[in-house]
Design a protein that fits this description.
It contains two helices and six strands; from the N terminus they run ββαββββα. It is α+β, with helices and mostly antiparallel strands and about 100 residues long. β5 and β6 form a beta hairpin.
Length: about 100
C-alpha cells in the first residue's frame, strides 16, 4: 500500500473528518488494492463525486479521479467514537 496524501496542505478542509484533522489519507490505486476494496466492502453508494465503499467497521474508501493524474483512493477512518458532526458509523444511514 502506497500513501500518496495525508495532512499536507492542498486538501479540502470541510468537516471534522478531513485530511487536516487526520481522519483521511490518500492511497495509490493498484490492481490488488482495487480488488480488495471492491470485494471486501459491505456496500457502496455514489456520493456525487465518487463511488464510496463501506466496510463493517465504518471505514470508507472512495475512488477519486479515476483515470487521471490525481487518481487515488480517499480513505476515511471513522468509528463509534467519531467527533460530533462526523460521518455516521451506522451503515444504513451511510447508504441512504
Amino acid at each position: 500500500v502506497i500513501i500518496t496524501g495525508g495532512t499536507e496542505t492542498g486538501h479540502s478542509e470541510g468537516g471534522p473528518l478531513s485530511h487536516g484533522s487526520g481522519y483521511k489519507i490518500d492511497l495509490k490505486p493498484t490492481p490488488e488494492l482495487n480488488a480488495y476494496i471492491t470485494s471486501h466492502s459491505i456496500g457502496s453508494h455514489n456520493r456525487g463525486d465518487a463511488i464510496e465503499y463501506i466496510f463493517p467497521d465504518g471505514t470508507l474508501l472512495a475512488r477519486e479521479n479515476p483515470g487521471v493524474d490525481n487518481d487515488h483512493w480517499d480513505l476515511t477512518l471513522v468509528d463509534k467514537n467519531s467527533p460530533p458532526g462526523g460521518k455516521s458509523n451506522n451503515i444504513d444511514e451511510t447508504l441512504r
